[in-house]
């Protein structure tokens, strides 16, 4: 370093010649020539890049051909550097060391680090869609729910709704709810290669499921499918899945049903509109106000998301759907009905009239009963009430049976109580029975009286409805009119 400083000073400041500097410092003229003008510095070191002479163009071509062969093979059956060296030795008579081949293979396999290109979208140009999973406690039972996530690409406005499954009908219903929340439809949707959307292939070669094509046609937007294992192609919604889990579902929420859970998710999505993303001028909500005006309008008629099926009612007044059975009124036994299964409900129709609605069950081999469907049959056959499955699975208070057994005909009495339950609800009948027992009375008529009184609005409740005083002067007008005639 000292010599470099003297060379630069003598040459640049004092104007000495290269020959003179070399003689005074006792160093080579080549060294003085190298450093005097500052074109090179002594502290810079060039990385060695010498290629051993044994690595000929023929060897390089062979190594590249090994890489090409790996393209169609499983990842665990790709060429290692040792295997390439063995093949070079056996097939080309290569005389170099394995370490030489290993260094060359490492140089040729070197690739760019994981870097992503920042993307930009116009308002209403695109939306990204994905599924996620989370654990929640519903009605005291911990279970895994499926989160349908959609995020607009311009404003980053999120929408999340929970379903019991990722079936096709839930997939379409999630879209429908999201479009209604946004107030319109974007022009392009980005997806993974979901089985509910893709019949075969992936990415650009994907062939859509017929039902998904019908859904897209109804809402007039295009679909783009990502490449396999390239989640960064829809990074906005990938981030949304983790964000909603961390911010809305920690700690594990305890809710009574999916409606309550979805209200929690919707509140969190709405609160996000006040958030300002780093590097942006506007809040998410301000950009969303711009984007809403550019969305495609919703069709006048919503798409039928439910899965449809026609089924004949059995002699037990049940119909089959998706591996389970659901009850209908006993009058429909033997009739053909239409079953519509959505993400949350199973609705049953007869001659375009809804005759039953059940919460959808995703366990197999179950039968779901509705007590009201069998009450007319029980009134005709009261002796069956003790072992009737619709009654047992209704989980009625033990108080009802205890009270019915105090009558001479407990089965008929229990059926009369069930009729009150069907017409007025369990809580009202339970309070009616309790008040009757407190008076030490055995009378279904008294139970019915107290049951109905529980449903009659109390005076305090009636006071909430204003009543205008009558205008008595109108009677005078009527009397005067009659006298004139």
The major pleated sheet works out as: 6 strands, mixed
- Any guess at the CATH architecture of the largest domain? 2-Layer Sandwich
Task: Give the DSSP E fraction (strand runs of 2 or more residues).
Answer: 15-25%
Secondary structure category: alpha/beta
What is the typical, i.e. mean, pLDDT?
87
Q: What overall geometry do the principal axes of the alpha carbons give?
A: elongated
What helical percentage do the residues reach?
A: 40-55%
Low-confidence stretches: none
The radius of gyration computed from the alpha-carbon positions, rounded to a whole number of angstroms, is 40 Å
What is the end-to-end distance? 132 Å
Q: What is the total domain count?
A: 5
CATH topology of the largest domain: Nucleotidyltransferase, domain 5
Count of beta strands:
15
SS summary, helix count: 19
Q: Which CATH class of the largest domain is shown?
A: Alpha Beta
User: Would you identify the CATH H-level superfamily of the largest domain?
Assistant: Ribonuclease H-like superfamily/Ribonuclease H
């Amino acid at each position: 370093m000292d010599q470099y400083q003297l060379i630069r000073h003598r040459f640049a400041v004092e104007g000495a010649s290269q020959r003179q500097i070399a003689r005074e410092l006792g160093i080579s003229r080549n060294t003085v020539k190298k450093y005097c003008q500052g074109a090179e510095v002594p502290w810079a070191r060039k990385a060695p890049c010498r290629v051993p002479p044994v690595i000929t163009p023929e060897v390089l071509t062979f190594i590249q051909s090994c890489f090409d062969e790996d393209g169609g093979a499983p990842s665990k059956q790709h060429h290692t550097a040792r295997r390439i060296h063995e093949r070079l030795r056996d097939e080309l008579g290569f005389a170099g060391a394995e370490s030489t081949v290993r260094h060359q293979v490492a140089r040729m396999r070197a690739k760019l680090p994981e870097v992503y290109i920042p993307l930009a979208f116009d308002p209403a140009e695109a939306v990204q869609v994905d599924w996620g999973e989370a654990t929640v406690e519903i009605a005291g039972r911990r279970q895994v729910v499926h989160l349908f996530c959609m995020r607009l690409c311009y404003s980053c406005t999120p929408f999340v709704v929970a379903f019991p499954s990722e079936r096709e009908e839930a997939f379409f219903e999630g879209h429908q709810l999201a479009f209604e929340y946004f107030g319109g439809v974007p022009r392009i949707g980005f997806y993974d290669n979901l089985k509910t959307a893709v019949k075969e292939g992936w990415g650009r070669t994907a062939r859509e499921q017929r039902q998904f094509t019908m859904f897209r046609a109804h809402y007039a937007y295009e679909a783009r499918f990502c490449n396999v294992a390239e989640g960064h192609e829809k990074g906005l919604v990938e981030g949304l899945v983790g964000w909603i889990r961390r911010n809305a579902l920690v700690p594990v929420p305890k809710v009574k049903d999916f409606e309550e859970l979805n209200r929690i998710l919707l509140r969190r999505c709405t609160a996000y509109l006040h958030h300002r993303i780093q590097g942006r001028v506007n809040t998410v909500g301000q950009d969303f106000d711009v984007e809403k005006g550019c969305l495609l309008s919703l069709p006048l008629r919503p798409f039928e998301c439910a899965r449809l099926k026609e089924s004949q009612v059995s002699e037990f007044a049940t119909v089959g759907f998706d591996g389970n059975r659901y009850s209908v009124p006993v009058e429909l036994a033997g009739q053909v009905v239409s079953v519509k299964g959505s993400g949350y409900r199973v609705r049953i129709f007869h001659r375009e009239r809804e005759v039953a609605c059940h919460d959808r069950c995703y366990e197999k081999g179950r039968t779901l009963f509705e007590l009201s469907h069998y009450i007319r049959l029980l009134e005709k056959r009261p002796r069956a009430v003790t072992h009737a499955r619709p009654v047992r699975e209704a989980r009625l208070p033990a108080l009802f049976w205890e009270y019915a057994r105090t009558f001479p005909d407990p089965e008929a009495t229990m059926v009369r109580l069930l009729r009150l339950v069907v017409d007025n609800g369990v809580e009202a009948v339970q309070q009616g029975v309790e008040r009757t027992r407190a008076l030490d009375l055995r009378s279904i008529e008294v139970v019915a009286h107290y049951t109905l009184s529980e449903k009659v609005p109390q005076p305090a409740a009636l006071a909430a409805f204003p009543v205008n005083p009558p205008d008595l002067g109108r009677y005078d007008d009527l009397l005067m009119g009659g006298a004139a005639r």
